[in-house]
Every structure is written in structure tokens, then in C-alpha cells.
Amino acid sequence: MTRKARFRFPKFQTVGSISAMVVAVASLFVAWDEANSVRRQQAAAVLPIIKIATPFMNDASDRSFRINVSNVGVGPAFIDKADIRWNGQSLQSIEALRPLIADTAGDAAFWTSRLEGQILGGGETLLMFEVDWDPVRDGAARAAASTATSVWDDLTITACYCSVYDRCWVTEMNRTGRPDRVDSCDKP
After folding, report:
1. Which of 93, 115, 143, 185 is the most exposed place for a label (fewest CB within 10 A)?
2. Domain for residue 164, yes or no?
3. How far apart are CA 143 and CA 108, in angstroms?
4. Is 147 within the bounds of a domain?
């Protein structure tokens, strides 16, 4: 006589163990995904965005040309490197720009500030360079326009900066759009 094979239900311990393993794997994935989301949120909460702008004022009350460096992001920006070039030639500092535009600027007043090594908090602006003309002086409007045009045509400024999480970016003068992400800034 042959016996018929009977189907046996798995024991409760086996079903419970398999269910527990499935729940544990799902919990592990949820925890991993949540940790990644929190890291991205923390990085975004301190994201610096540096803009290098060149406002030019040429009206009866104000004749000036400026180079402003602003952190339009929310976190601090550590500016580790700045590359300043005039017609492709590297300048040691922004102060070296003064004699290059002296002919077009005339008797304007100059003001400069170092960019490298600065820490800009969210919403802060650094006045890097300024040329001011007496608004009532003869020829001031022409000198201001000529100087601004010369600087816009011949000057380039590139800055590399990092966040508190050592995420780094490179931006350029009068750039529109996002800065380029880099692994690190080459320290001077």
C-alpha cells in the first residue's frame, strides 16, 4: 500500500521568522532612505551661492562702478581661491587692476578688498572693488562709462568657495545660472 503525500502547513515559527525578516529588510531600506534625505536637507539648509556682480551707476547723483561679491544662499561661503585676470593675464590681487584702468578712470577714487580667505554669511555682500567719480566733474560720465566698458570687456574673476560640509563650487563674474560643482578648491 502506498501512502499519499500530504501537504503540511508550515509551522508558525517559520512563518513568523520569514515575516520578521521581510519587515526588517523593509525597515532597513526606509532608515537608509530617510538618512539620505536628512543629509540632503542639511546640505541644502546651509547651501551658499556666490554671485559676482558689476553694478554701474552713471547718473547725476552717482557715478560709480563696483564689483560686488554676494552670498545669495543661506549658509556661509568660505572663499578659498580667487583668480583675477586682465586680458587673460593673471593679476596678483584686485589692487593690481587700479593702474590698468587709471587712464580711463581719470581722477576717480578707488577702493579695493581682498576676496580670497573671506567668509560670507548668507545674505552678506562684500564690496571687492569700487571706482567713484565726482558726479559734477566735467567728463565724469564719459570716464565712468569708458572704465565700466573696459572692465566688462577685459576683466574676468573666478572664485572657488566651499560650504560648511566641504562641498565646493566655482563661479565667475556676471555668471547667470548655477555655479559648477568641484571636488575641492585648490588652496593657494
Report:
1. 93
2. yes
3. 9
4. yes
